[in-house]
Every structure is written in C-alpha cells, then in structure tokens.
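Why do we bother with holo predictions? Because pocket geometry can differ from the apo form. Keep that in mind while you read this record for 2-OXO-4-methylpentanoic acid.
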Amino acid sequence: MQITIEKVKDEELKPLYTDAAQLGFGKVFTDHMFTMVYRKGQGWVEPKITKYKPFEIDPAAVVLHYSQEIFEGLKAYAAEDGRILLFRPEKNAERMYHSAERICMAPLPVEYFLEGVKTLVNMEKRWIPKAPGTSLYIRPTLVGLGSALGVHPADEYLFYVILSPVSAYFKEGFKPISLYVEDVYIRAAVGGVGNAKTGGNYAASLLAGAKAQEKGFSQVLWLDAKERKYVEEVGAMNMFFVFGDTLVTPSLSGSILPGITRASVLELAEYLGYRAEERMISIDEVIAGAKDGTLTEAFGTGTAAVISPVGSLFYKGENYEINNFQVGPITQKLYDKLVGIQYGREEDPFGWVQEIGRF
Ligand code: PLP
Ligand code: COI
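The structure, written out:
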C-alpha cells in the first residue's frame, strides 16, 4: 500500500497537552489522520495521511440517515525502554471486518487496517503520553457515504483513523465504580447487531445511561432483551464475576460485544491458575452472591476501561455492595498482569504485544 502523506507544517502543529494525567478520555486529538476510500468498481483506494480536519460529506450520505457506521478502539503504549507497543491489533482489524459484514458494508482488508494504524501512530509518536495509566487511544472508523435516500447499502465508504491521548476512562481511575442494573430498557437482542461494534448500539444505550448517571451511577449493566434475567455487559465493557477462585463471564450470546480484553482476561486467568467459565449468568445469581458474600469480586473489561473494579450494583430499588466497595485481590492481580504486558514491563507469554516503532 502506497500511503500519500501530507504533513502539517511544523509551525502549524498543535501544542501538546501539559498534564497527561489530566487528559481524561477522547477530548484531545493529534495533528494527522489516516483516510482511505472504497468505491464500487475500484475497491479500496487512496490511502492518505493528512491534517486532522472536518470532512465534507453529502447530506444524503447513508451514514447520516441509516447509521451505516462501525468503529474500533485500541491503544498504543509507551514502554519505559522506548518501544511503542500495540496490543493484539489484528483482533481489532478482524472484528471490524466482521462488523462490516454484519451491517452490509464493504469490509476493509485486515492488512490495510494494520498498515494505516501503524504508519499513523509512528508519525504521531510525540503524542503518546508516558505518565502512568496513559496511552494513545486509536479510533478506526468506517462509514457509508454515497448520495441516495433509498434504504440500501452505500456504494462508497470512508475508512479513517484518528488518535487521542488519554488517561483513565472513568473519573474514578482504578477505583470501584457503581453500576445501575437496567431492567426496563435493553441494549441489543439476539439476532440483532449487539455483537457488531456499530454506533447505533451506543445511541440505543444513551437514554438509560443518562438516567443512571443522573442518579449517580457510572454506567448501566444490561440484561438480556427477552427475559431481563441474564447479565449481558456494561455500556463500554464486558463483565466478570468472581466466586472464590472462579471467574464467570457471560457467554457470547450474539447480543454482546466479543471484547478483546475479555478474551485476553479469560486466557490470563487460566494462566494465573484461576478457573474461568463462559456461561449464562442470571442477575439473581449475582445478587444472591452479593448478599451472602460468595460473590467476592466483580469487574469490567475493555480497551478504554482496561479492568475496572465494580463496587456495587443497584437492582430493583436496592443497592448491593461487592467486597465492601474495595478492589479485590484477583481483580488487582489481573489488572497488574494485563497492564504490565500492555506496557511491556512484564513478560508476554502469549505474544500479544507488537513493537511498531521506537521513540
Ligand atoms: N462492550 C462494549 C459495548 C464496548 O464498547 C467495549 C469496548 O470496546 C467492550 C465491550 C470491550 O471490548 P474490548 O475489550 O475489545 O475493548
Ligand atoms: C473501547 O473501549 O475502545 C470502546 O470502544 C469503548 C467506548 C469508549 C465506546
């Protein structure tokens, strides 16, 4: 792939952030972005790196009317020895391919995704923050363009990648969060698009999320669409429940996102000697465990959220604390190991991290 590079002039580069620990999530963007377009008859063409700037798109573009949009999220990490690392980027490229197929978009070949991401990140390496817990968040996005209002797949697509230096996703940092168990609204149903990373899933979750936040909760814990009985996932992460030395995470029912952090934690848990189960888990089982203390820990997993301890669940008018709202030892151990691998501090027996450049 021959990427055309239009570099922003040195004197027009944005000033860097001053305090990396205060970045928050997804508010600051770097100088450049990667773009590539798909046209019927031509395939994927015109890979480019240009200035980060607004797009001009047709008001009748399919994405603006029928939500033909998918995205990914991964991070670049600064290792202390000067390496720039990505964590399992091919998994994001593959998931984006499947998401595209699910909502009838032209899928982007995995190698274009990877080359676009790696080239852009290397060019923007001055933006990769080095403070503890910070990283460069990578947001690959694919949208349907074209110009026609009939409901049909677009005949033109835009793939782009933007970068944002970030600190913790939750304002709490690595501290327990409180979740609202939603038993009215649902996020996604089996047979729908809950297992594709498409923007509409997030739009569908906004109202319940806003209501939960008004009541002081960080996010919503979703239940299944049919019976409101089984635990699904959280707004931006998969869930794990710890019963003694056994971890339980909801199975990939078709309506939850197959998280890359989730898959990694399952492998890591077994490697560290815990039992790990993927199965349906009812909210009643979780609440009973919280009440009698057999549920010893709970946490969520995600690229943005990393591993986030869950300290309480609010369900049907009652609040249930888990582990006295403290970070549990298994959550801590998994967090230390995962983050250690991601930042290149710990040995990586799984071959998950890839060096893509150096400072
Ligand atoms: N579930 C949802 C709804 C998400 O948005 C995310 C974030 O990407 C996850 C789970 C976790 O997925 P991953 O670990 O691949 O980031
Ligand atoms: C991620 O963790 O990468 C996500 O996509 C979560 C969220 C910010 C939507």
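Residues 73, 236, 302-304 surround 2-OXO-4-methylpentanoic acid (ligand 2) (CB under 6 Å).
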